[in-house]
UniProtKB/TrEMBL annotation, chain B:
<dbReference type="InterPro" id="IPR002346">
    <property type="entry name" value="Mopterin_DH_FAD-bd"/>
</dbReference>
<keyword id="KW-0560">Oxidoreductase</keyword>
<dbReference type="InterPro" id="IPR016166">
    <property type="entry name" value="FAD-bd_PCMH"/>
</dbReference>
<dbReference type="GO" id="GO:0071949">
    <property type="term" value="F:FAD binding"/>
</dbReference>
<dbReference type="InterPro" id="IPR016167">
    <property type="entry name" value="FAD-bd_PCMH_sub1"/>
</dbReference>
<protein>
    <submittedName>
        <fullName>Carbon monoxide dehydrogenase</fullName>
    </submittedName>
</protein>
<keyword id="KW-0274">FAD</keyword>
<dbReference type="InterPro" id="IPR036318">
    <property type="entry name" value="FAD-bd_PCMH-like_sf"/>
</dbReference>
<dbReference type="Pfam" id="PF00941">
    <property type="entry name" value="FAD_binding_5"/>
</dbReference>
<dbReference type="GO" id="GO:0016491">
    <property type="term" value="F:oxidoreductase activity"/>
</dbReference>
<keyword id="KW-0285">Flavoprotein</keyword>
<dbReference type="InterPro" id="IPR051312">
    <property type="entry name" value="Diverse_Substr_Oxidored"/>
</dbReference>
<dbReference type="InterPro" id="IPR016169">
    <property type="entry name" value="FAD-bd_PCMH_sub2"/>
</dbReference>
<feature type="domain" description="FAD-binding PCMH-type">
    <location>
        <begin position="1"/>
        <end position="177"/>
    </location>
</feature>
């Protein structure tokens, strides 16, 4: 499957420093020695700290905000923020209802943790003391806490100017009536919990104003600094040139850090108002209760199939709890509306219907989290396919093999017109089934376990659309549409290479992988490649790092810029070698001809220090190139993986142990397989969190109940097994080197594979779990419920 | 997550500590290891006027065997016990319990007296020490008194400590050679708080048992008539005679309404019993 294209690096693919090399991460020298610089590490003279007064209620009218006299100068409310606009993230999809999110609450609060007042003091502790002294007079309103009840007539309204609580309803249908006579028809309700993204580093903001440049500088833990700048400019009514957003080292993003925060707007205003730098560092309680929520889905789904397990159609109604506001730039409807387009995934089916509802509730806005809607749809569909297998009397793996798109169908447009670029999905599934040894598991199940537990095997497969661009996003009509991606490449006078890109790196290893791309194109030692990112003043505009796009898009752009730079260097080199330009080649960092060779370093020296030696027709652009890139098709790359889990279930305590885990992944051409492995490990950990641990419950008053990490459980080293990885490499026909985006995939499939394995283990008891996370309590509850149901009525 | 302002004293001896705690009109909290109080202060769940830091009190770090009991000062850490720096009179039970508390970083600082005073029903010592028949000496300026472990925790985060009173020492009886012990807990993750605890000390030759169900929403249950759990008598075959229905009824009577919760508790208790018999 390996791409046979001849990459120029002389040392060959898989070795050396170019595309395919398992190069150790350049950034680790800094990060692993504790020398990274994160927002909270920034110290500016005169810096003061901010703490916020947040709403203790989910839904209430603000009668009064009482600020003690002695703190009047330290406390700011919406009334003080003159000229500041609310955050507006509108979708152009028909019927979308607009919500305005005031950066400090105006009139009403619509979620616990909503910002009501901003308190500034020399230290965070003093700022929190001031915040504690501010009292709120709130008139509590009925909380809209359940997304399904929120759609019922008579529900309280989150936004009173709306007629209901639905941000957006969508409908998609292809010929569903043709499926209705299918012999197999399975219907279930399936739900996934609300989660918190929980990067190691939370959000954080330092804002300062540079009088000389007449420029606001916002240091923010952000993954899309250019988009943050656009959003800030809209809220503050400022020219974009008067704002610089710097995102230093960032400790994980996962989508959370792509969102424009009200805190960012507040602190920007505050530094300009007060004339000194200000800082806000999100604490873990703020993170859990007031921000960063994701993934709460509900499905009512019916799958139709023939007796042989072949799909006849899927009918689904999906509801997503979108929370109180539409977040910038992705909007409140991306998650739910995307469900309709991605639910069928890599499966063949002649009929399909999906209605989706993005529902407003009195909870934090739902934000896009690694895999966005995909982990939910994978959970829903893959659980259903196991039930089809039961009905058809087939192994679950066999049902997949009968329905997956086949390699000879590639490129393939599925029923929702998703364009699959390449791949062999059945092969990935076959390898996973063989590796987890389904037959061996079946034999073991027949014999029973010595320790009395029940074992089960589960599989799942997904596709991950990545680096999708203009043609996909223009239809959403949200504040951000990706176009060409740009990169700048500059040879320094001593032969080093500087790369400037507008994407960011917060775990993705771009400092390493983009250097590998540059090495591939120019032969420059990766140690001499410096990557500059995370700063709107120093990088080309980019929508940033999201949607598993950075390797494909920024990698393509770096390749384009380096190609052009290499060509210019080659022409200078030809002159230095006294050759015709056509008679020399650029190879391994040198321009070579029959007369000998000249290094890029010597060429750079010539351009900068000895221009008298340059050819007369030299390109006046010199050794600095900004170039742009877009794949031949911008409908996205499709990477995919088959996951297989073997679990043991303790039916007495409800505990689940993952005994074995297999991932067969195809991410196209891998620039650095070790980095890809790391992405998969991290994604798997998050997927296990979704499957078994992470849940942010709310009570009927809309209060978030997991307010510390003692209640919000994240998987740790003892919960994440070492998976067995197998890579396939089917290059994308549309991208530079055949790369595909792989950033999110690891997190998508584990909940489905693990739940299927648990259900496989419990099937002899007639027990099934259709809700994530699968907690010990839920396992025992389901077993007892089944036992009660079987007990003859008294 | 910064604490509200508070005063801080670090007395050099117990009388000075008791004097600080006895200040009228001052809300005071003792800090020992700070593993629970620290986060509670940062979350502003407690806002005492005065923190009395007792980590400097050498007399509370003593650990010695006196006759038929082990006397532990309140400031002995979980790690002191885990690492065997204190004498063992329980056939390894104390060491086992200590080693399974939270994470090593917590065990390094967390103290037995602090954990007991915090009276979290999900913590380990409140259940384990009740099973092992421990007693506590509480001291205040007014003098000292002794309470059985099971009488000390009166509810979730509620102890029998009176204002100005401190846990001074913990007295653990020497376990008879004929006694068996078992300690089992269910946690969502290793190191997290338990959602079910079973702690048992069973002496089949004497026909006695102390059986504790912990990590419920209120104080741990010391089962009043443990023989009922084993079909009316405690003998060498107690493992086989364990009656889950009796345990379930005890939990239901204690107000554990959810059958699934009871099921898990009963399962955990049964494993503690099995461990004792192993």
């Amino acid at each position: 499957m390996r791409n046979e294209r001849d990459f120029s690096s002389a040392d060959g693919a898989g070795a050396g420093q170019g595309v395919g090399a398992r190069l150790p991460r350049k950034e680790d020298d800094r990060l692993m020695r504790g020398r990274g610089q994160f927002v909270a590490d920034i110290r500016l003279a005169g810096l003061q700290d901010v703490a916020f007064v947040r709403s203790p209620l989910a839904h209430a009218r603000i009668r009064a905000i009482d600020v003690p006299e002695r703190y009047r100068a330290n406390v700011f409310t919406a009334a003080d923020l003159t000229g500041v606009n609310p955050i507006r993230a509108v979708s152009g999809l028909p019927g979308f209802k607009i919500s305005e999110q005031p950066v400090l609450a105006v009139g009403k609060v619509r979620q616990v943790g909503e910002l009501v007042a901003m308190c500034v003091a020399p230290t965070r502790a003093e700022a929190e003391d001031i915040a504690a002294a501010v009292t709120l007079d709130l008139e509590e309103l009925p909380a809209v806490h359940d997304m399904r009840k929120a759609r019922e007539a008579g529900s309280a309204l989150v936004h009173e100017e709306w007629v209901d609580n639905v941000f957006l309803e969508t409908n998609f249908e292809v010929d569903i009536s043709s499926a209705l006579d299918a012999p197999i028809k399975v219907t279930r309700e399936i739900s996934t919990a609300r989660q918190c993204m929980s990067p190691l580093e939370g959000r954080g903001v330092v804002a300062t104003f540079d009088q000389r440049l007449d420029q606001l500088t916002l240091y923010s833990a952000a993954q899309m600094p250019h988009i943050t700048r656009s959003g800030l400019a809209e809220c503050l009514g400022m020219e974009q040139g008067r704002i610089r957003v710097v995102s230093p080292d960032v400790g994980g993003g996962f989508g959370h850090k792509g969102i424009l925060l009200p805190e960012e707007v507040c602190l920007s205003w505050l530094t300009m108002h007060r004339g000194h730098p200000v800082r806000w560092t999100e604490d873990r309680r703020e993170h859990l209760t007031a921000s960063s929520n994701c993934r709460e889905h509900h499905y009512r789904i019916t799958v139709y199939a023939d007796r042989d397990g072949r799909l006849r159609g899927i009918d689904c109604e999906a509801t997503v709890d979108s929370g109180a506001y539409s977040s910038y730039p992705f909007s409140a409807c991306l998650e739910a509306a995307q469900v309709a387009s991605i639910l069928p995934g890599p499966y063949l089916m002649p009929a399909y219907r999906c209605r989706t509802f993005s529902v407003a509730t009195n909870k934090c806005p739902i934000l896009p989290y690694r895999g966005v809607a995909r982990s939910g749809v994978c959970f829903a569909l893959e659980l259903m396919l196991d039930l089809v297998a039961v009905e058809a009397g087939l192994e679950p793996g066999e049902v997949r093999l009968r329905n997956l798109v086949r390699p000879e169908q590639m490129p393939f447009d599925n029923i929702t017109k998703k364009h699959f670029d390449s791949g062999d999905y059945p092969e990935a599934m076959r390898r996973a089934l063989a590796s987890i040894d389904v037959e061996g598991v079946r034999a073991r199940q027949r014999n029973g376990e010595m320790d009395g537990r029940r074992i089960g095997v589960g599989v799942s497969i997904y596709c991950e659309q990545a680096a999708h661009g203009t043609s996909v996003y223009s239809g959403w009509g949200i504040p951000m549409v990706p176009g060409h991606e740009q990169a700048s490449a500059r040879l320094t006078p001593d032969g080093g290479l500087e790369l400037r890109v507008g994407v960011h790196s917060h775990g993705q290893s771009m400092e390493t992988t983009l250097a590998q791309v540059a090495h591939e194109m120019l032969g420059v030692d990766t140690a001499k490649v410096r990557l500059i990112l995370g700063d709107t003043a120093m990088t080309p505009y980019s929508t940033g790092t999201w949607g598993s796009r950075s390797m494909v898009m920024a990698g393509g752009a770096v390749a384009a810029a380096c190609r052009e730079l290499g060509e210019r260097a080659r022409r200078i080199g030809a002159k230095l070698l006294q050759h015709d330009p056509d008679a020399v080649v650029l190879q391994n960092g040198e321009v070579r001809g029959v007369n000998g060779s000249v290094t890029l370093r010597e060429i750079a020296h010539t351009w900068y220090r000895r221009p008298q030696d340059l050819p007369v027709d030299v390109d006046p652009g010199g050794l600095e190139v900004t170039s742009g890139y877009k794949p031949q098709r911008d409908s996205g790359t499709f990477s995919y993986a088959a996951h297989a889990a073997l679990v043991a279930v303790d039916c007495q305590l409800g505990e689940i142990e993952i005994l074995d885990y297999v991932i067969v992944e195809d991410g196209g051409t891998l620039v650095n397989p070790m980095v890809v492995d790391g992405q998969i490990y991290g994604g798997l950990a998050q997927g296990i969190g979704t499957a078994l641990y992470e849940e942010m419950p709310f009570d009927a008053a809309g209060q978030p109940l997991a307010t510390t990490l003692a209640d919000y459980l994240l998987p740790g080293p003892t919960e994440v097994p070492a998976p067995r990885l197998d890579h396939m490499e089917t290059p994308s026909p549309y991208t530079q080197f055949g790369m595909k985006g792989i950033g999110e995939g690891g997190a998508i499939a584990p909940p489905a594979a693990i739940a299927n394995a648990v259900n496989d283990a419990l099937r002899p008891l007639g027990v099934e779990l259709m809700q994530s996370p699968i907690t010990p309590y839920r396992v025992v509850e389901a077993i007892l419920a089944r036992r009660d149901a079987e007990r003859p009525a008294a | 997550m910064k604490p509200a302002p508070f005063g801080y004293v670090r007395p050099r001896d117990l009388p000075a500590a008791l004097a600080a705690l006895g200040e009228p009109e001052v809300s005071a909290r003792i800090i020992a290891g700070g593993q629970s109080l620290g986060p509670m202060l940062n979350l502003r769940l407690v806002e005492p006027q005065l923190i009395v830091d007792i980590t400097g009190l050498a007399e509370l770090k003593q650990a010695e065997r006196c006759g038929d009991e082990l006397v532990l000062g309140a400031c002995v850490t979980h790690a002191d016990i885990e690492d065997g720096r204190v004498p063992d009179v329980t056939g390894g039970a104390m060491q086992r319990v200590a080693g399974s508390i939270a994470y090593r970083a917590v065990r390094n600082r967390g103290t037995v007296g602090g954990s007991l005073s915090h009276a979290d029903p999900a913590a380990d010592w409140v259940s384990a020490l009740a099973a092992f028949g421990a007693k506590l000496t509480l001291r205040s300026l007014a003098g000292s008194r002794t309470l059985a472990m099971e009488a000390f925790v009166v509810g979730a985060l509620e102890s029998a400590l009176r204002a100005g009173e401190i846990v001074e020492t913990i007295h653990i009886p020497v376990m008879p050679a004929s006694a068996h012990w078992g300690y089992f807990k269910a946690c969502r993750k290793p190191g997290e708080f338990a959602h079910a605890i079973g702690a048992v000390m069973i002496d089949p030759s004497a026909g006695t048992a102390r059986v504790v169900i912990g990590a419920i929403d209120s104080a741990p249950i010391l089962i009043a008539n443990p023989a009922e759990l084993f079909g009316g008598r405690i003998g060498g075959d107690y493992k086989e005679r364990f009656d889950a229905r009796v345990a379930d009824a005890i939990l239901a009577k204690a107000g554990v309404a959810s059958p699934a919760h009871r099921h898990i508790h009963v399962g955990v208790l049964q494993r503690a019993v099995r461990e004792a018999a192993a």
